[in-house]
Specification:
The complex is a heterodimer. Chain A is mostly helical. Chain A has 41 helices and no strands. Chain B has 2 domains: 21-87, Chemotaxis Receptor Methyltransferase Cher, domain 1 (Orthogonal Bundle), CATH 1.10.155; 98-291, 3-Layer(aba) Sandwich (Rossmann fold). In chain B, strands 6-2-1-7-8-10-9 form a 7-stranded mixed β-sheet. Chain B has a 3-stranded antiparallel β-sheet with strand order 3-5-4. In chain B, helix 2 (44-58) runs antiparallel to helix 4 (76-87) and helix 5 (98-118) packs across helix 6. Classes of the chains: A mainly alpha, B alpha/beta. The interface between A and B is large, with 40 and 31 residues.
Chain lengths: 643, 294
């Protein structure tokens, strides 16, 4: 420590900027209070790199020593130095708020401004009263302004009354007060703002309306609506925005026709406002009217937006239009020549559940471009039931697009008619795209038909790997006992990928058929580690106690990941007799396996497991220590639970 | 039973992995500790989108296992390189952001060379930090050739090109590029400094000689002290990966590395606001350059 101190002192005394910076770094790393006075003197070194390094060091050291040492620098002429002092004091000011409040009584108004600013950053309730005093009594506008800003930053409701009184101050201070009241945001803030609304200039009123909108206080609404007829257009737009934000579009629709008609003209006018926030509020408000005129004008705005830059806004408007209910204009749009508009219309319909939608989309499907067809089909699949087979059969026969085909197959899978699946879907298992194959296979599985199951068994002998994989996967998902011999053949398949899928397919059988479980023994010595891992995972989920013996054998696998997964599976089984075998793996040369063994022993619980784990709390590897500590606290919780 | 095509990138049933809060924290802390790269909570998707394929290829069940892989597996070093490649976008090209480079070539480089000439020295050091696959340092080398022409042989010039990833450095050393990497490079420059090689273009050896590629971690302040002091530092689109604390530390390391009167370039969308006041910003049409005052 002494060596460090001496070295730091030498470096900080140097005239070489690089050395002073190095001294500052070292001071920060060591956190030495003793060097604070030297560091502080270096703030005035005429090199910004030095100043910045010193500032960083003082910030890191922090505390009262820094606060008291830096305070005098607020009076420096050099603005760069003064700014550094301000920044530091904002950081360390909370150490002694009382000392800082003295600044508010200084003769120099600049120092009072600085003091108010720093007190705002302390986060302390002790700063509220002196700041309120400055807000109402300081003769200097800028001090009162800064006091208002700082009270907002502090956010204590105790300041609301004084802030309300300050709304009679100069306009410049009023803005800061409104912002502060918004930040505080409690009921007394709203009351103060409402009182000031009628008595304010247009500019201040506009800020108050913004603030009321943000605060969302429902009692403010009647007063805001009453102010509408006398307001200028920009202020009226702000009021509309605030009202919609406070009430919400749903509640707005509950206003009577008379009330809505009072707002309607203002809502249309607000659509012309430059501010998109105001426009969006007007859109929400108009949607509550549900009329043709409202739909047309909102849709026009939607179609004028750019999906790349306004995606989020478009989504919001789509939801608003969908909330207006199915509209006859949607049918015109979906059938029209404007593809972008048609896509938006389909997007809106996808969020609605009107019976007119399915026949409409079917009627315009074939004349539509591909992207529109994809969108339409997603809606049709979600909305169609039995009775639409003809349409979807045509899609499968006539279409070539993978996305469209997948959607149609999903429909048939949902329908569950095995004959149709066999006839229409099965051929798609030869499709060149994997995702189309997978959709077809999923439909074949969903339908659960004996004929298709038979076809799948035949496919398990296909010469192509991908077909055998699909067959074993689906046979496993079918899960019928007759499929087992076919899947077992897959365990000896020449392709490792196929063997892995066959192992996973046994998952459906290993809890009911001990023979099926025993089949996995050969896979535990498969040359491919992915197959061995799959076998471990399946055995991990098997409830037969014999699965434990198989897993114990696999604990000697050459691949650490296989050993780790094996231990993990054993831990979940909670057979406390295997604790000694699990404990052997605590000596494994792979940290991963050791951690998994600790976790597994923790799952077993009991005094024996506890005995094995205790020495690992001091293990050199932090993750092992953590695992052991977690395991021991798990033991403690278990014991306390038993007590 | 997992999806059949889990390893074959089929989009329908192939659910990508999701990272739990605990796993995210574990990976976030690990990546930050190893590289200083800060992945904000709201960018969890970055981990999921960019690393899910790694999990599939490694046959891992979840991101918790991936963390263990990075910590303990025998192949962890290779995997770390892949991890960093995945999470840092290596979107780059020759002559990226031409207005900024124009300022470098026409103003800063000329000023620096003149200053060195008048000090009767012909040693120039440039540091390209976060050089990725080499497009930036090679572009700088081309510009040096363009400015110095025949005189270049009389100068002792070294561009220290540093990146975190050994894999991208390997590619940078090869100096082979597709047409896409040269999309913003003037035709005459391609003809002059590249040799067509099949469908690709190889950088000429005289440019390679100017560059010293090195692996380095910008978050490791002490190791950066070993980089030779520079007249100019380029660190464009790199500090975006760091949080403010780390940005301050990295920029401070560049400041320490720069010789008095040296210049620093950062990405045109990056700023030193709230990061450092040590540099004096110089405003040029199309670029702000940061000066370490003498």
């Amino acid at each position: 420590m002494q060596n460090n101190l001496k070295r730091i002192q030498d470096l900080l005394e140097s005239s070489n900027p690089d050395e002073i910076r190095e001294g500052a770094y070292l001071s920060a790393d060591c956190g030495l209070n003793e060097v604070v006075p030297m560091l502080v003197q270096r703030i005035v070194f005429p090199n910004p790199g030095v100043q910045e390094a010193v500032e960083g060091a003082l910030r890191k050291i922090g505390g009262q020593a820094v606060l008291y040492a830096v305070l005098p620098f607020l009076r420096m002429e050099d603005s760069a130095v003064r700014n550094i002092a301000m920044d530091l004091l904002r950081d360390v000011g909370k150490c002694d708020v009382v000392a800082l409040t003295e600044l508010l009584r200084d003769d120099d108004p600049d120092i009072r401004i600085f003091g108010a600013d720093i007190l705002g950053a302390t986060g302390s309730a002790l700063a509220v009263t002196p700041l309120c005093h400055s807000l109402l009594r300081d003769p200097e506008t800028n001090v009162r302004y800064q006091a208002a800003v700082s009270l907002g930053v502090l956010g204590f409701p105790e300041a609301a009354e004084s802030l309300g009184m300050a709304l009679k101050d100069e306009e410049w201070v009023q803005f800061a007060v409104i912002e502060a009241l918004t930040k505080i945001g409690d009921e007394s803030s709203v009351a103060a703002l409402l009182i000031a609304l009628d008595k304010s200039t247009e500019l201040v009123a506009s800020s108050i309306v913004d603030a009321l909108g943000k605060l969302g206080y429902i009692k403010a609404v009647p007063m805001l609506i009453r102010a509408l007829p006398h307001a200028s257009v920009p202020l009226a737009n702000k009021i509309i925005c605030a009202v919609v934000n406070i009430v919400g579009p749903r509640s707005l629709s509950m206003l009577g026709a008379h009330e809505y008609s009072k707002l309607k003209a203002h809502l249309f006018a607000a659509l012309e406002d430059e501010d998109t926030e105001v426009q969006d509020a007007a859109i929400s408000g108009l949607a509550s009217g549900k009329g043709d005129e409202e739909f047309a004008v909102v849709f026009k705005i939607l179609s004028s937006l750019n999906p790349d830059t306004d995606g989020e806004r478009m989504l919001k408007i789509v939801n608003i239009l969908a909330g207006m209910g199915y509209h006859k204009k949607l049918a015109e749009l979906a059938a029209g020549d404007d593809e972008a508009a048609a896509l938006l219309a389909v997007e809106i319909m996808s969020r609605q559940n009107d019976p007119a939608i399915v026949p409409l989309l079917e009627s315009v499907f074939w004349q539509s471009p591909r992207d529109l067809q994809r969108a339409m089909l997603l809606v049709l699949v979600a909305r169609s039931g039995a009775g639409e087979e003809g349409f979807f059969s045509q899609v499968l026969e006539r279409h070539k697009d993978g996305s469209v085909l997948k959607s149609a197959m999903y429909y048939f899978g949902k329908l569950g008619n095995s004959e149709l699946i066999f006839e229409k879907i099965f051929p798609f298992l030869d499709h060149p795209y994997n995702d189309v194959k997978e959709a077809a296979l999923e439909a074949c599985i969903t339908v659960r038909s004996p004929e298709i199951n038979k076809k799948l068994r035949e496919m398990s002998k296909n010469e192509q790997d991908i077909h055998r994989m699909m067959a074993f996967y689906a046979l496993g998902r079918y899960g019928t006992a007759e499929n087992l011999p076919y899947i077992v053949q897959g365990l000896r398949d020449p392709s490792a990928e196929v063997r892995r899928v066959a192992v996973e397919a046994l998952h459906s059988f290993v809890n009911t058929d001990l023979g099926a479980m025993n089949m996995l023994e050969q896979s535990l010595s498969d040359e491919n580690s992915a197959v061995r891992l799959a076998a471990i995972d399946v055995l991990g989920g098997c409830k037969f106690p014999e699965s434990v013996d198989l897993l114990l054998k696999a604990m000697k696998d050459a691949d650490p990941w296989v050993r780790a997964r094996c231990v993990e599976s054993l831990g979940k089984k909670r057979y406390d007799t295997i604790a000694p075998q699990l404990a052997e793996l605590l000596q494994d040369d792979q940290t991963l396996v050791v951690i998994k063994a600790i976790e597994a022993l923790a799952n077993l619980g009991g005094a024996v497991a506890f005995k094995y784990l205790l020495p690992f709390v001091d293990h050199p590897e932090p993750e092992v220590q953590d695992a052991a500590a977690a395991a021991l606290s798990q033991f403690r919780d278990q014991r306390e639970g038993q007590v | 039973m997992p999806s059949l095509f889990a390893n074959k990138s089929a989009p329908l049933l192939n659910k990508s992995f999701t990272v739990s809060d605990d796993e995210f924290k574990q990976l976030h802390d690990f990546i930050y500790k190893e590289s200083g790269i800060f992945i904000a909570e709201n960018r969890k998707y970055l981990i999921e989108n960019r690393l899910s394929n790694r999990l599939k290829e490694l046959n891992l069940k979840n991101f918790g296992e991936y963390y263990y892989y990075l910590r303990f597996d025998a192949r962890k070093k290779e995997e770390m390189a892949k991890l960093f490649e995945s999470i840092t976008t290596n979107e780059t090209s020759f002559y990226r952001n031409p207005p900024q480079l124009q300022v470098f070539q026409d103003v800063i480089l000329k000023k620096t060379l003149d200053k060195l000439r008048s000090a009767r020295t012909k040693t120039l050091r440039i540091w390209s930090a976060g050089c990725s696959t080499g497009e930036e340092p090679y572009t700088l080398a081309i510009m040096l050739h363009e400015v110095l022409r025949a005189e270049i042989g009389t100068w002792d010039i070294k561009i220290n090109a540093m990146d975190l990833s050994l894999a991208v450095l390997g590619s940078a050393r090869h100096g082979l590029y597709t047409e896409y990497a040269l999309r913003t490079t003037p035709k005459e420059i391609i003809n002059k400094y590249f040799v067509p090689k099949g469908s690709q273009f190889e950088i000429k050896p005289e440019l390679k000689h100017l560059i010293h590629f090195m692996q380095g971690n910008l978050s490791d302040r002490l190791s950066l002290k070993r980089v030779e002091r520079s007249h100019i530092v380029f660190c464009r689109n790199v500090i975006i990966y760091f949080d403010d604390e780390m940005k301050k530390q990295v920029i401070s390391s560049f400041y320490d590395n720069l010789l008095p009167g040296g210049y620093m370039f950062i990405g045109h969308s990056e700023s030193l606001h709230n990061i450092s006041r040590s540099f004096k910003p110089e405003y040029h049409p199309g670029a702000i350059v940061y000066l370490k005052q003498e």
